[in-house]
Amino acid sequence: MHRTKIAGIGMYVPSNVVTNNDLLKYMDTSDEWIQERTGIKERRYAHRTEETTTTMGVEAATIAIERAGITPQDIDFIVFATLCPDYYFPGCGVLLQRAMKMKEIGALDIRNQCSGFIYALSVADQFIKTGMYKNILVVGSEKHSFGLDFSTRGRNVSVIFGDGAGAVVLQPSANPSASSGQGILSTHLHSDGESAEILAMFNPGTHANHWKPEKYADFEEAEIGEMFFSHAMIDKAQVFPNMDGPAVFKKAIIKFPEVILEALDKNGLQTSDLRLLIPHQANLRIAQFVQQKLNLRDDQVHNNIQKYGNTTAASVPIALCEAWEEGKIKEGDLICLAAFGSGFTWGSVLLRW
Ligand code: UT7
């Protein structure tokens, strides 16, 4: 069996910086509330017409591919994670394949929200381990700013999210057998659909009230053809993400430590062996709670939510890339990537750089 290594990494964030005070134009909030509850100071918003989830993914991928010392034509599989695709379908994978003039390779889209990049890495890892592919591009990218409720009604969600992209190129490691060898040691994926509606965007969708979410369109009154996307949904602001923040928070602080310890236990390692934990950047308070629970030093955790907000599937690769660029990660270091979010889904990846 091969082991999978990260051969190149890249990130892209739009140039437009939006501070907490900038949001006061749209909603009743405050810099103090946002910083105290989330740690966020500012986030980036993509250009409304010139940038999309895919184009940002292309920017990050271009850097990752160059750093891997290969060309887009060498990529033999794409895995693209996002919750805000350019089109409802097809997914962003094929749009990236087209934009980067890649060969007619497979392109897989992943819909696991905040855990999207962890799920994407885990899937790609299986293809490398079995020898099926040699150069897989894994991308996480989000253009949240296009689909949020910027009125006071949506403030608990909209202040949190930001736009951006991260990407890695995965290759087989040259030294797969040694336990100290470079690459992914294990991946761990979980879900609990009981809480699917706690953090969800219901419309457009085919649910037609079947699951009885608290907020939905009046399908009883809808004509055929209006079920998927209707005037009622827009009139009643049912086209935005919904979140019970405190419920997500409570579950996240249990599942984050659990899945990180699961990865360490599986490999006979301790938290003290970790050079760096890269938690999904959901909320600085969640990351601090996890750090405290696992007894990790400040230099063992990398957070950047202060600058970028929560970029969902892009947050782990952006934070990993930034930590690497800042020289916090050296060859042989033990790194844990972990995420929790909508679904609920959660997971971890333990790797040696
Ligand atoms: O990555 C995806 C997964 N998502 C998460 O991990 C999110 C996890 N949850 C959280 O991060 C936090 O729950 C939030 C940051 C979303 C909210 O913080 P909280 O401390 O749990 O606040 P809350 O929802 O309990 O709301 C407290 C108060 C409410 O007012 P009342 O009812 O006490 O008068 C809200 O209406 O804060 C109000 N509020 C705001 N006030 C100013 C909610 N959003 C805002 C806002 N500005 N943006």
Describe this structure in words.
- By secondary structure, the chain is α/β, with parallel strands linked by helices.
- The protein has 2 domains: 4-172, Thiolase/Chalcone synthase (Peroxisomal Thiolase, Chain A, domain 1), CATH 3.40.47; 183-195 and 243-352, Thiolase/Chalcone synthase (Peroxisomal Thiolase, Chain A, domain 1), CATH 3.40.47.10.
- It has 11 helices and 13 strands.
- The strands form 4 sheets. The protein has a 5-stranded mixed beta sheet with strand order 1-7-6-4-5, with helices on both faces.
- It is globular and about 60 Å long.
- The relative contact order is 0.19.
- Oxa(dethia)-CoA binds next to helix 2, helix 6 and helix 8.
Total discrete domains: 2
Q: Globular, elongated, flat, extended or rod-shaped: what is the shape?
A: globular
- CATH fold type of the largest domain: Peroxisomal Thiolase, Chain A, domain 1
**Helix fraction bin:** 25-40%
CATH classification class of the largest domain: Alpha Beta
> What share of the residues does DSSP label as strand, in percent?
15-25%
Ions, cofactors and other ligands present here are: oxa(dethia)-CoA
Q: What is the CATH architecture term of the largest domain?
A: 3-Layer(aba) Sandwich
SSE pattern: EEHHEHEHEHEHEEEHEHEHHHEE
CATH superfamily of the largest domain: Thiolase/Chalcone synthase
Tally of separate helices: 11
